[in-house]
Specification:
The chain is an alpha/beta fold and about 180 residues long. About 20% of the residues lie in helices and about 30% in strands. The protein has one domain: Dihydrofolate Reductase, subunit A (3-Layer(aba) Sandwich).
């Protein structure tokens, strides 16, 4: 079975995934609502996580490592020496491009990968490797920040697969991404 890649990401209503400084504090009131937005079922289907350096450094700042799955960090600047000893068995660093990494993980037997981080999601879309994206829209306008989507190689056709709303006002929609 070929490796499929999936994104699960929250964005403000105006399309930002983080404040300009990378802050995620704006998500805290919605996380405190203790609503299941589908993340647990999503992550249970994954073999591992692919993320960028910025996302990795943000997660390190949480003070606890939230993942049980193996994590691959795409980075041109980090090395294995940048991984804390406590995470050495859980985190790997690579400078492979998305296609190379996709092939390597498929050869290792991965069947489903969670792709996280704005730039990494964009790179997997541009490489034609992202299968679907679950976009959780948070009812908040940030006005500025780090956008989820930036330049893409061309139009990317999406098909709505499902959409759910929650009492907190969050709307989660899953889209299939057309292959080029």
């Amino acid at each position: 079975m070929p490796l499929s890649c999936h994104a699960f990401v929250a964005a403000s209503l105006d399309g930002f995934i983080a404040r300009p400084d990378g802050g995620l504090d704006w998500l805290e009131p919605f996380n405190a609502a203790e609503e299941d937005h589908g993340y647990d079922a999503f992550i249970a289907r994954m073999d591992g996580i692919i993320m960028g350096r910025g996302t990795y450094e943000t997660v390190l700042g949480f003070g606890h490592w939230p993942y049980r799955l193996p994590v691959i960090v795409l980075s041109q600047s980090l090395t294995v020496d940048d991984i804390p000893d406590s995470l050495a068995d859980h985190v790997a660093i690579t400078d492979m491009d998305p296609a190379e990494l996709h092939a390597a993980l498929a050869e290792e037997g991965w069947q489903s990968a969670y792709v996280d981080g704005g730039q990494v999601i964009q790179s997997f879309i541009n490489a034609g490797l992202l299968t679907d994206i679950t976009l959780t829209r948070v009812p908040l306008l940030l006005g500025q920040g780090r956008p989820l989507f930036g330049p893409v190689a061309g139009d990317v056709a999406l098909t709505l697969l499902e959409s759910r709303s929650f009492p907190s006002g969050i709307v989660s929609s899953r889209y299939a991404i057309a292959r080029p």
